[in-house]
Amino acid sequence: MNYSDIAITAFAIAVMADLFLFKNSLLTRPAFWTSYAIILPFQFLTNWWLTSKNIVMYHPDAIVGLRIFSAPAEDLLFGFALILGTMDMWEFWGRRGMQRDPRPNKDKGI
Amino acid sequence: MAMLIFTVCGSFWLEIALKVGVLRRIKRVALSVLPISTLFLIWDAYAISKGHWFFDREQILGIYGPLNIPLEEYLFFIVIPMAAIMTIEGVTTVKPHWRKDEFGQ
What is the rounded distance in angstroms from the CA atom of residue A98 to the CA atom of residue B64? Predict the structure, then answer.
């Protein structure tokens, strides 16, 4: 499996897990999409930095070759899976009652 | 490394400005970030070993952790997920009615 294959797989797993494994799917909620809309430009900016300066390089055989702001298109799937997966876990623990409140004195723990 | 510092500056101010209190809930952060970042670091190790991606040794710190993964990559998979959590917490702090969906209240 090259970068494209794994990126598509990770994206699919994250989406399926969000829709079918976690309750209250983030993909159906404006809080997630608003957050993603905020994060995406920063992802473009940082990825552009890392790839245009050749800090990170990709083997031509590992990617499809489509580049968005100098970064491989696969990065979008990779970033989406990473962000969605993390937020789903965060919400999962929150729903389990773990450290729901930002203020520590109200924290009940789990 | 500069990119990671940029991300920290770009997101961690929410901790102060909006009092999202993510850093105060470090246990929940750890239990959210680490399972996901572990999966991605396994992917990272595999991709590095197969040469899917590689790094300019002149432009990274040159410190390598286990599995031949540069230190920056380890930090990336801690900083970026934390920034993501702070972002959604920031959003739901500004739009509290969106938080209702979270716990079905």
Answer: 34
